[in-house]
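Please decode residue identities from the backbone states below.
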């Protein structure tokens, strides 16, 4: 009888251990910071750039990473989540990169007057079933009353299966987008 009760307890513990849900994983985008110039090479900002909050499509507003399974079906992960809200991560990385790579501009927030304004809108920021991460949307650059919008679309192959490879591919695509933005800002500033 004691043996039967012991086996029942061991069996119950085993079932409980097997039925526990897999752990939740959290991810953040990563873009390496450019090398900082020496103090002698540092430039004092002479112009201002107002960075508006980054806008993301509604389906990206949740905490789960997104996979596009077909032309009409999106799967939002419930156990693979962004560590921060996606729009906040994008804003923070964009601001860090702009400050480091555009030393002639001082970034300003809010609705203060600035020499240039930048608004980034992300429509797609997910994996596709064919093993490619896609980033698309548009950005608007403004100077005074003049504004120009530019659409963009980047596709970055995933180097492996899984969510870490997806986040790495999205980070690489975001780095390409930021380089395009910086080039555009510099060309308009000539």
């Amino acid at each position: 009888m004691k043996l039967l009760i012991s086996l029942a307890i061991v069996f119950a513990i085993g079932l409980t251990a097997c039925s526990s849900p897999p752990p939740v994983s959290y991810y953040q985008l990563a873009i390496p910071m450019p090398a900082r110039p020496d103090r002698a090479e540092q430039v004092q900002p002479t112009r201002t750039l107002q960075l508006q909050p980054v806008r993301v499509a509604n389906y990206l507003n949740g905490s789960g990473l997104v996979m596009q399974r077909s032309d009409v079906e999106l799967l939002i992960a419930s156990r693979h989540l962004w560590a921060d809200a996606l729009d906040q991560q994008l804003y923070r990385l964009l601001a860090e990169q702009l400050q480091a790579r555009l030393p002639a501009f001082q970034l300003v927030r809010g609705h203060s007057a600035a020499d240039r304004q930048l608004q980034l809108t992300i429509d797609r920021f997910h994996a596709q079933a064919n093993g490619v991460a896609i980033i698309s949307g548009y950005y608007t650059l403004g100077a005074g009353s003049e504004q120009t919008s530019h659409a963009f679309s980047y596709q970055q192959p995933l180097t492996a299966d899984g969510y870490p490879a997806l986040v790495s591919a999205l980070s690489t695509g975001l780095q390409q987008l930021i380089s395009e933005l910086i080039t555009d800002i510099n060309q308009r500033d000539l």
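Observation: The chain has a mean pLDDT of 86.
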